[in-house]
Backbone:
């Protein structure tokens, strides 16, 4: 059995977080949404290969992920670039499955899973149900919320669990049984899948194909043995990934602009570290030995006062701290900020801008000064594009 993962969507509801980074590879704990699913499916004896269908915009990010991920899984993983570059020219879930079948000449049973759901149960039960029924199979659960019900694929079944009716986003739902995006099709369904779109099957939502198969062949539904989290919104993602803070000190605005981009790509909270007494141009004059910045930077123990108005500091799981490089390192006001809030046990990453010098010593310096913090390597961000920024930020979590 092949595991075909549908990962080519553009997740437009989660912009800007997913504008430059694919939703399936968003970090969740020390893993990603996609890896959580693969960890489960890879352990199933019946599965002999994973095929991940992605789009042209994100193929490179998946290729980089695969370099590291391939060692983690027992079964081989192949990627397919569906050629689309935006939501407007997307191929759709059914089109992507057809493309995978054609490209890899699949003649096997197929588990089809969308890569944007987290499950608290194994897909093993669906595989067992498939073996028992010998037809295509899906899960269902009961959706009692009327608003959500209208947005789902709704099914009716006979007493044997055979699907007798299936409608995507029905205006008048005939039941409360709804289907999450996990399906198994048998090898004998493949010719039907290949001709489905030509025969009127809608191409966009994966549930359309299941509905089509229920009409032209046979489909059985199994009650989902646990719950799933559909990561369809920024709030939903924040709830599982933990909150991100992007704090910055930026007396002349360069670091502030980078911080804004970083907050966009991490869906983080932007926070300015404000000195109690603002730095004037004279304060910043590094050529004058007696200027405020020169005096502060000469004294490693100086701790310029800040306005300590960061709310719920403890609620953040990941904290990015941005600053301008001063005298080859971080301004001491950054020490004030860290010591005010502690951040013990949190993941903290610095980013910086400079006139050209690097800041490579800061990683060691911070790790030595604040060993209770889980420091990840910081980065000088004098130039970047938003895509590489998103990839770096995701790797820091
Ligand atoms: C007091 C002071 C010291 C600086 N020291 C350095 C330095 O050692 N190396 C460097 O490349 N740039 C240095 N710079 C330049 C800043 O790092 C750079 O202009 C930065 O992007 C400013 O960020 P901001 O606009 O967020 O304040 C220094 C600037 C100031 C004001």
Residues:
């Amino acid at each position: 059995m092949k595991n075909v993962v549908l990962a080519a969507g553009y997740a437009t509801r989660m912009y800007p977080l997913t504008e430059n980074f694919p939703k399936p590879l968003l970090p969740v704990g020390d893993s990603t949404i996609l890896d959580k699913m693969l960890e489960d499916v890879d352990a199933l004896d019946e599965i002999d290969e994973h095929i991940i269908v992605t789009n042209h915009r994100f193929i490179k990010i998946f290729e980089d992920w695969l370099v590291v991920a391939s060692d983690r899984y027992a079964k081989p993983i192949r990627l397919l670039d569906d050629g689309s570059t935006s939501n407007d020219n997307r191929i759709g879930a059914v089109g992507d499955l057809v493309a995978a079948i054609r490209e890899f000449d699949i003649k096997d049973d197929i588990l089809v899973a969308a890569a944007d759901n987290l499950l608290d149960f194994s897909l093993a039960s669906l595989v067992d149900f498939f073996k028992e029924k010998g037809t295509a199979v899906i899960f269902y659960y009961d959706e009692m919320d009327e608003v959500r019900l209208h947005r789902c694929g709704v099914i009716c079944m006979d007493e044997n669990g055979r699907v007798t009716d299936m409608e995507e986003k029905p205006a008048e739902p005939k039941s409360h049984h709804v289907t999450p995006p996990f399906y198994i099709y048998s090898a004998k369904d493949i010719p039907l899948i290949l001709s489905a779109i030509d025969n009127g099957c809608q191409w966009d939502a994966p549930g359309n194909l299941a509905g089509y198969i229920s009409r032209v062949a046979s489909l059985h539904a199994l009650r989902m043995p646990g719950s799933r989290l559909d990561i369809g919104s920024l709030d939903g993602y924040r709830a599982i990934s933990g909150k991100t803070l992007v704090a910055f000190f930026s007396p002349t605005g360069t670091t502030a602009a980078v911080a804004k981009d970083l907050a966009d790509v991490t869906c983080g909270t932007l926070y300015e570290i404000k000195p109690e007494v603002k730095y004037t141009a004279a304060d910043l004059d590094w050529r004058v030995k007696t200027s405020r910045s020169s005096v502060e930077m000469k004294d490693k123990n100086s701790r310029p006062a800040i306005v300590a108005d960061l709310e719920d500091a403890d609620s953040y799981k990941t904290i990015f701290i941005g600053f301008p490089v001063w005298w080859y390192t971080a301004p001491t006001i950054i020490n004030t900020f860290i010591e005010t809030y502690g951040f013990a046990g949190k993941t903290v990453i610095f980013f910086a801008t400079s006139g050209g010098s690097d800041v490579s010593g800061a990683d060691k310096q911070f790790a030595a000064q604040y060993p209770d913090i889980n420091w990840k390597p910081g980065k000088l961000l004098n130039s970047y594009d938003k895509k590489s920024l998103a990839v770096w930020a995701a790797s820091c979590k």
